Amino acid sequence: MYSSKDMVVDAVITWVDGNDPAHKVKMEDYLENKKSINSKSIRMRYDQVNEIEFAVKSILQYAKFVRNIFIITDNQTPEFLKDKDKAKREYPTVSIVDHKMIFEGYSQYLPTFNCLSIESLLYKIPNLSEHFLYLNDDFFLINETTIDDFFYQGKPVIRGFWTPFYENIWYKKVQSGFYNFIRKEDKIKKWGFKKGQQTIAKTLGFKKYLRLDHTIAPLKKSTYDNFYKKCPELLDVNIKHKFRHPEQYTNQSLANHLEIQKNNYILKEDYQLVYFQNYNKPFWWLKYKLKKAEKDKNKLFLCLQSLDQCPEEKLRYIKNWLSTKYV
Q1: pTM for the full predicted model
Q2: Whole-angstrom Cα distance, residue 220 to residue 256?
């Protein structure tokens, strides 16, 4: 009889401090248009407001089964870990893993400013457990979880819905034709979260794809290791680009569809997610949504995407909410 009690689970968070002047200088060397370094599209992808501290605290508070938390960075340290003595005392299970560690053997692709490339090599983190959780620095747990919420009898619990590819959805075909007509081919060719999922599902021979959302992904190290040993060219496709590229795929979706092929998964058609992206809505709406999330015990995940774009007053409220929730 399988028991989750004996399972070892680590957590991995990718993080970058795009506000760091040294990081900006490094990035400028690889941008075609150096002036775009301060554009909204770049800043919202790389800037941060120290939300990673709360992402870590949410794991410590609501996923007590997690053994170690690895933060993947490019020669940077989050503010709450800079005092080494305090970090060792208050966060003994949290450690920094530099890009150089996971890109060993692929150092020709460094530096990279591409989360898709970095995600492709997470399985190479030294001492990473076979079963691990992956999250971005704007993901948070908001209720108590157990291993079974992520791995049931050893199988990854995949949250999502089977969805047709864009070319099989009539309004997507109309939209694509419209963009072609007004000569916005660049919009079609850009990488997108859903497009990246479809790309790998097609590559693996699926007729539709299991659509993910912004939740914590339960992954298995051996799934990546075995696949990339057989298909090293697909690893190269995903790690060679310094910035997001249309040919890249969503790495968590790769793992999910590989598990589906082996029938080694549990499907849960409920994201259990509270998601924020638009901070221009009324203040009362933001407060209401957070209070509602607190009361709903079925909700496990909170995503505060592009929090750096949040207006100052609302940002103060959200950070105060996070500070109160994660003590």
Answers
A1: 0.92
A2: 10
